Amino acid sequence: MERASSPIASTFVALALTGLAAFATAAHAQSVPQGWPDKPIRLIVPQPAGGGFDTVARILADRMGPLVGQPIVVENRTGAGTLVGTEAAAKAAPDGYTLLLGALSNIALNPGMYDKLPYDPLKDFTPIGLAVTWSYTLVARKDLPQKDLKELMAYAQANPEKVTYASAGRGTGQHIAMAVTEKLAGVKLTHVPYRGAQAAYQDVLGGRVDLFFDISSTARPQVEAGSVRALAVSSKDRQSFHPDVPSVMETGVAPLDMESWFGLFAPAATPAPIVAKLRADLAAVLARPEVSELFAKSGGRVLKLSPDETEKLVRADVERWTKLLREASVTAE
Fold it and tell me: I want to staple 44 with a disulfide (CB 3.0 to 4.6 A). Which of 89, 227, 229, 317 is the partner?
């Protein structure tokens, strides 16, 4: 037979439950500063609209906004490569209303290319999370005599500076991918910089330049159309959309492992509860199958890393690429 509860016990239980409810409410209130966000959040993209940076930013902003509770507005801040926009984000108020679309280029590559960088990627930013990564694909003009990368590098070794390669500009990812491969392979090639990938492709397709190490998302249509030949990918492993194309590392030519990642970063002093909320919302977006499928169409691979894994990867890439770029004497000037 159950024992009847006394009025004192009932009162004690009621008070206890009230206390727990109050504690839970207080804990929830402390999860983010009161009232945040009460206005749109801006996402600074340090590149023009329409490019890889901008595409990733808009995919994430459109889907995270409803979760955060305010629109996330993409703001393209261009100039000096990626320096102007990245510096603006670094110096923004750390109040949760400014984010940066950070990538391998402006976070990990710039420190090795500039003697005086106006921001410190490790000290001035807190990673919210890395979202997606793409490999680069080394393509060659259709009539290149050498059948594969190993044969081509042997030719380059015997004929210094006779092999030419295009880039979308000095200091771009396309330039760095080839310059570092050249350094690691111990050969001398001739760099032909262009103003953008479109101009570079015109001369590769026309047979006037031998090679172009382009981001895989834009190289893929050219390869599938038969306009160019794919010799290798920059990632450590082969890519699913180029199953017959080896990695540079696999060929034995050079120990290259390069993928261009993109993600969200906040000014370093942004309150921890806001950072935690943004991390949770970004993770929820990246967990959606439609987002993975959207990126996969262009050869992108969604990243699902913990905060610790993200910070370790970013730090490791900053240190690794700074060393490689300085050894290869690659600069943005």
Answer: 89
- The series of mean pLDDT values per 10 residues for the chain, 333 residues long, is 41 40 38 88 90 89 97 92 92 97 94 92 98 95 96 97 91 87 93 85 95 89 94 93 93 93 97 97 97 90 95 96 86 73
Query: What whole-number distance in Å separates Cα of residue 264 and Cα of residue 129?
Result: 6
User: Which of 251, 281, 305 is the last residue before a domain boundary?
Assistant: 251
| Residue 163 contacts residue 155 (beta carbons within 8 Å) | yes
Cis peptide before 246 (omega within 30 of 0): no
Domain presence at residue 85: yes
Task: Report how far residue 307's alpha carbon sits from residue 245's, in angstroms, rounded to the nearest whole number.
Answer: 33
Structure tokens at 243: 């199953």
Are the C-beta atoms of residues 233 and 247 closer than 8 Å to each other? Answer: yes
Pair (154, 179) in one structural domain: yes
Structurally, the chain folds into a number of domains equal to 2
